[in-house]
Structure formats: C-alpha cells, structure tokens
Amino acid sequence: MTTTNSPKRSVLKRGALMAGAAVVGIGLAAGLTDVTLLASRSAVAQPIQLSGVQNQVPSFADVVDNVKPAVVSVRVKSRVAAANDDGDASSGVEGLPPGHPLERFFRRFGEEGQAQGQQGQQRQQQPRIQLAQGSGFFISQDGYVVTNNHVVKDAIEVQLVTDDGKTLAAKVIGTDPRTDLALLKVTEPGSFPFVQLSQAKPRIGDWVLAVGNPFGLGGTVTAGIVSAQGRDIGSGPYDDFLQIDAAVNRGNSGGPTFNQQGQVIGVNTAIYSPSGGNVGIAFAIPAATVSNVIDQLKKDGSVARGFIGVQIQPVTSEVADAIGLKDAHGALVASAEANGPASKAGIKRGDTILAVNGEKITDARDLSRKIAGFAPGTKTNLTVWRSGKEQVISFEVGKQPA
Fold this sequence. Notes:
Its EC number is 3.4.21.107. With 402 residues, the protein is an alpha+beta fold.
C-alpha cells in the first residue's frame, strides 16, 4: 500500500498541516511580525547541508589510477577435444555459460577450415580450437605477468591486452596446477607498468579492490572487503584462500585484488555461485603463496615442494582424549611410507605431529601446507606426541613426487 492511496496516511498528513497552522496562528497572536514569519519560512526552505560527508566516504580513484595500467586482459587459444553438436560442452569463452544460444556459433567458429564434405562424426573426433579469456597483471618492468593456471591451460597462443588497448604476444614460462598459478612473459622488449605483491597479511574487514576482465568487458574495478581468511574450498591440499566480497565474475580469473596502498594481496581464482555469477563470495590466492610460487616458476619453470611421506588424519576430541592430549590439534600419522622421509626419520604409525620447527600444527591440512613450503633437503625439527609425551625428531624434507 502506497502513501498516496492510503486514506489513513492522508488524514495524518492533513492533521499535521492543520497543527502547523494552529501554531502559526498562536505565534502571530503573541506578536510575531510578518517579517519574522517570512524569515522563519525562508530558513525552513533552505537545503540541508551535510558537512564533512564527502570526506567520510572512501574514494579509490587514486589507487585505481596507479594500478589499473598494470592489469591486462588475457586471451588464450587452446586445442581441446571436440564437442558434439548437441552443445554438451562449454564454449570455452569465459562469460558464455553452457547452453547459451551463441555456444554453437563459437564451436563452429573453431571448426572453420575443415573440409565441407567431412562427416559430423569425423569432426567430433578431431581437436578444436577453444577461445578463453581471463585476467593478469605485470609484476616486473620487463614484462612478467601473473595469471591463473586454468586460464592458460593447454594454450597454443597467448595474447595480452593492456589497459590502453595495445595487444602483446606472450609465452607461458611455467605453471603450477596445485595452486592454480601461472607465469607469463611478454615476447617483445619494452618497459611495462607493474605492481608489487604485499608483504603484509590483510585483516578481515580491510577494504580491497578487484581489477580484471569480467565477461570480456576489459578493465573493470570493483570494491569490497576481506570477508575471511584460510578458506578451504576443496580445490587441493594447499587451499588457504582469502575470501572477498568485491564483485568477481567469469573473466576475472587471474586478476589481482589490491589493498588501499595499491599492493596485490591476492590473485582471484574462484567464486562460489549457484548461478555462475557474482553473489558476493570470491576467493583469492594469498600474496605470500603467489610470491613463493612465482619465484620458483621464474627460476625453474616449475615448483618443487617439500614432502613428508605419511598418510595423516585429523585429531578429533575423542582421539585427543584417547592419546592423552589436552586439546585436539596436530596431525595423526595413519601410516608412514616405506623408505619415505618420515619413515627414515623414525616417525611411525600412531605418532601425532604437533609442531614443525616449534610452530604449532592446527590440523592435518596445516601440516601439509607447512611441509610443502620447505625446499626439498631442508633440515627441520618435528615435535611428535608418542606414548603420552612429546619428543623432538630431526627430519629432512623430501621432494614431492610429480
């Protein structure tokens, strides 16, 4: 029910006007002059001035001006298995969901150049060209670019489109599927604007900016806050994502999330969405992980991770009570791989690993991440709970199998 159609509300409005008239009448009877009355009316008619409001609302314009030139759109051609004519596979163009009317057009576009007389079944058996789009950002003046592994997976051609519209050819230096990161390099010489990875861990509630190429639209900026840290979304054993509520959509993959100082705090890699579009839950790879992985990709083209060689399981409150721990934490060793690093160090079934180099282990996933962060061959100390007491075991980190 609207205000204009409500008899009751209309009566209330009229009552208020009548009450105001009565007050004015009393004022005149008390000796107010017409000049005073006019001045009063004039004061009421003045617009409300909200002093200082503009200073209270944050503006990200200066940050955007500084960082946006370093963000690029990533265009990729890759060769994939052919799809059938019923459209049961995605078009491969980010921003175009399965079942979209243009899906078949893009699939056919990839089949151009094939013989017109070819049978449909034969076309299906041949690889087709898939077009994909994502985002990335320069991390060095000489043209190194960070993006997601899934953006450039199986790429046969990669192009970068800069903020000013220039198209640059690039090559893949290295990828790390386990963290979904990739390093690219512009093939032509030049000096490029770049941004830095943040050394500080963001706080929950900090303002952030996501910049990228959603739906192929080009440089787009959205704002939000850090919603959570340490998210495990089931994508791999090293999940440690930042959760942000800045709008992130298809095509933002590989793009940066910035803090208010213009430093990259994360690389956007996934969203949680029943519909496929933004619902305010996005996940970014933390800058600390990015820095570690990218340094190795730049040096070796691949990532070598530490390996412990055990099967581990969580320490529940029931398990903690059974083995005499005061609180449930650490990783319970279900088995140690024969001739593996842990077995060689003397770790065995039933041990509970509580700390690495004195740093407390919260759970089994935390142990996997910490060990993976060490270079193979690193000497460490593991604090182990065995037979109702703690003991420290010297341990040499192994190399994770490919």
